[in-house]
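Title: Prediction job returns without error message
Component: structure pipeline
Severity: low
Priority: P3
Assignee: unassigned

Description:
Job completed but the reporter wants confirmation the result is attached to the right record. Sequence as submitted:
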Amino acid sequence: MTTQNAPKAGDFTLSTEIFLATYQSELGTNEPLRIDIREAVQEIQIFEGINYNTLSGTLVMVDAGGLLDRLPITGNEILEFTLHTPGFTLEDESPRGYNFKTFPMWVNKIRNISNPNQNARIYALDFYSKERIKDNQRKLCRAFEGPIHETVRVILRNFLKTQKDLLFEQTTPVVKYVIPKKSPLDTIKFLGKESVSEKFENSGFFFWETSDGFNFKSLEAMISNTAGKAKEPVIEYSNSPKVDSGQLYDTKDGVKGNMTKVFEFNILKRFDTLSNIKQGTYASRLVTYNAFTKEFKNVDFSYPHEYTKSNHMGQEQFPDSPYTSIMPVYNYEEGKLLSDFPEADYMFTSSAIGMHHETKDKEPIETADIENTLQKSKAQKNAFNSFVIELVVPGNTAVTAGSVIKFTTLSGNIPEGKNDLLLDPFLSGNYLVTEVRHLAQTTPQGIHTMTLTCAKDSVGTEYIPNDKEVLNSDMTLVQGYDYNQFTIDES
């Protein structure tokens, strides 16, 4: 935790009180009955991710005095505390930390109860945002009309009744959907798949919660600024020794130690060609049927042909290059690319639009144009799942799910005649943070670390294209023969 001296990497500021509040009220008041469990707390875990609607976490505590017996725990409690990295305060105009005093978390369950000795019990309290509890109590059965980002705002404010901030990207066009008994968060998830960015050439939005509030954005809005250029990373991490003025660990912004140091680095996924082929990342064919016109239509998608129309993680150095994608461009078979086989992922769906009435201004109310959204959205999401790493780094509440970070690592290859180590040109570069797992140990020697899951859909240097067919020599140099097994058995 933070000391009285200058903070160091791994320090964190935790509120002096951690309140566990029950549904019971203080005698003679409308305030909930609270107990301060701060001294019993040993560990706090907080999780956020772009594929998860709300925040969640776990609080581990050692109860040596029957503290929880005073309530008792029933699954109808809330947690109130704050946690942030030194240098960021919750009073700032843009707070970069967790403020569970203003927006308490709901204790969902108690687990892992053990008795290390007769005088103490260890509890693990799992908690979620209140919106997740509310979501499981409600179903929507009504029509929504307008831009999807506005519908998301209405659902959050009117049905989940949240007062948290909403950071959104504008969608297009004006649409109308009739929701048949879906929960609020399931409705937002469905609408996210149907969303089309007003600014970027993409589709498919994510909805998730961070310490900053709720977010509703496309992948491209996460990695690109308003000018359509690559976002500057919020921090640069390196798992190689970083020397500054002769010191291995530097002091920056009053923080001792290296906030950018990587404790552990793992490659979770670097490529999966078979999966990308089967899931339609490289190519797909969509057969649509329009019930109004009684027409069928084939729509083929090719990843290399769509690649330069969108922004990507590896385009900060090569903004217009078609050769930084996860799929190298080469002669795969008989002059064809890997993306020239669209039936690898074959889909069929209805494409009827204009199903609803016209507005007073005679503007049609549409649903999403599936022919221009489904395949592109699938390929973009799958591409980000093709290049995934995991970093364990000093805790920093300014790094949230949806942030862009930079990571550099050394290459094992040393060019002939050189003694200097080189950066890995393919693993190094900008990444999108898709998940953040905070671990804050509240013991006197405790430290705040976080595990980042990071992904990118491209590389920081170009793959060399090749128009020569070099991987199919077995098709020309070897002749296979057909044998009848019974003939072999008789010989």
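Comment from assignee: result matches the submitted record. Confidence is low (pLDDT under 50) at residues 243-252.
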